[in-house]
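ok so for the tutorial part 2 we go from a plain amino acid sequence to predicted structure tokens. step 1 is just haveing the sequence, like this:
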Amino acid sequence: MKREEFCEVLGDIDERYVKEAEADRGAGKRKKYRMRWRTWAACLCLVAALSFAAFAIDGFRYHAAVEYLRSLGISTADLSDYSRNEIKEAARTIDAGESSPLSEEILSLLPDQEKPESAPAQVTSEQIRELTPTMTREEVLSFLGDTQDLGSGIYIYVYEVDRQYLLRIPFADDEAQLGVTGEDLLKALIPIT
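step 2 — the prediction. this is what the tokens look like for a chain of 193 residues:
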């Protein structure tokens, strides 16, 4: 049914009402289009902001890992052969007192003159099992005995366990706690070669 026929059936409808209704219908479409465009623009801004934040966090972690390795005495130039992810992973592994082939390779970059001359203290795996996460650096030293410290800026104590393995125990400062159980430390033993 055409508009004119509809108007004749309903009676006289003022033409300005019909034009007003048509104008409102066109404005609604434009409003929907503007809302859709604004939604897409907001989504794109959010994606860009999240991407930038992820890049910034990755950069911060990388620079923190490089600074940590430098505090151990490893030259920044020596790290140029490694990717950003390898450097972050090695620093995380070393800081946790664990070992991996990559962390051992990076620790081998320590200059010879900075490596201590003394031998690691001898302990048993039974002594290591008795360590608790809340023990401080001083408590661990008094319990296991003073030993070789590889740290430069932080403490990294090396113990020889059962005359077969090496164990590195890191502490960030004098007040730091061990943070792991003795059983967890036994999983991080490095065979003596």
